[in-house]
Amino acid sequence: MMKTIIEPFKIKTVEPIRFTTVDERTSILQDAGYNPFMIRADDVLIDLLTDSGTSAMSAEQWAGIMQGDESYAGARSFFRFEKVAKELTGFTYIIPTHQGRAAEKILLTLLGGPGKCFPNNTHFDTTRANIEFSGAEAFDLLNPAGKDPSAIADFKGNMDVEALDRFIREKGPSNVPLVMLTVTNNAGGGQPVSMLNIRQTKEVAAKYGIPLFLDACRFAENAFFIKKREPGYRDKSVKEIVQEMFSYADGCTMSAKKDALVNMGGFLGLNDDTLAVNARNILIVTEGFPTYGGLAGRDLEAMAQGLTEALDEHYLTYRLRSVEYLGEKLTQAGVPILQPPGGHAIYLDAKRFAPHIPPQQFPGQSIVCELYRLGGIRSVEIGSVMFGKSDKLTGKFIAPALELVRLAIPRRVYTQSHIDYVIECVIEVYNNRASLRGFKIVLEAALLRHFTARFGVLQE
């Protein structure tokens, strides 16, 4: 029996990488205000900033693009996409949007507002921002194991259902428009959510008459974790598991730029008739007609095909194993990561990686910058830059529970030698971690500051 897991595809088209020197990258980093978001992609060797919209599309997806129906209304490409999405999710209404945050914006415009409270296992950045932009508040109710980077557990992305029940009673059911579960839990280390936890979360929400929504952008990876780890699911197909996951939900937001393997696209799935009518009205104002929703017909074709390809177990085995390989090699070298490896990324534990840098000096950002300077690797901080805030009354800095650096792996893009290069660079940065210095923010936006902030290096 062969042990090596190979990529379930052949490479047909290649894109050259422009190599830069350490001196060049030092200058580039300074010009970018020490924010990798502000670095030109041509100046990046290995881009692990995000797995969103960075997948390599298949020959079948490219063929579908050529067949895209670009009719303004009633395009056949929409109906193909709708059929695939409905078969997977079971939702009555599938409303296309240009990406996941657009679906969030529509949903939270309708349900948010001052006094409203939205619980989640862990909100990611755009979800939280859309909630707060509406005047509502976002709350994370992650289970205790999920807050410990070194703990080993099968489903560290789970909602703390007892905390959820208390939360709803304390806030009042009328102030909680929906309960959301993010699968897999991105800000919590790409950790999966069990089917039992989805079911239990639904039971709590239903007890108070509150709908359950999934943030479902990594639905296939979550389903494959369930198949591999949860009793009773080993003999079920990934498609069957996905369908069961969605059967407990009343709706979803979806960024198809992740598990649907496309460069642009998303949708809002709904069962509620009134909510769907209102959502489509907002869609027409902001995104476009309900049968294209800000997308070209070719995008809808690619999404339909990608939603199908994402369920392939050979692909999912390769996908999860390639991430796991990176995590294993770093762990063997003593590099502290959030355990166990997640589905789409490895998360460096910045608190243990650079313990001499306090949260208010952004240890994750220091690691991110050094990875780029040393090896041209672009990654992203998920810690006090992304989620830290100041107390409104005292001005005291409030750090999030986790200080992480995410190495997000684009789908079907990099080979093992690319990952081996990443491993070498991370280990070298870790071995020289005492030289890492903290940062201060010199320019920031009111929302989602990590995208555009500029930093200065703190001098010793």
Number of strands: 16
Low-confidence stretches: none
Strand content: 5-15%
Helix content: 25-40%
Could you name the CATH homologous superfamily of the largest domain? Answer: Type I PLP-dependent aspartate aminotransferase-like (Major domain)
Helix/strand structural class: alpha/beta
State the helix count.
Answer: 16
CATH architecture classification name of the largest domain:
3-Layer(aba) Sandwich
* Count of structural domains: 2
What's the main sheet like?
Answer: 5 strands, mixed
Text of the CATH class of the largest domain: Alpha Beta
Spatial separation of the terminal alpha carbons? 56 Å
CATH fold-level label of the largest domain: Aspartate Aminotransferase, domain 2
Radius of gyration equals 21 Å
Tell me, rounded to a whole number, the average pLDDT: 95
Q: What attributes does this structure have?
A:
460 residues, Aspartate Aminotransferase, domain 1, Aspartate Aminotransferase, domain 2, 2 domains, five-stranded mixed sheet, 16 helices
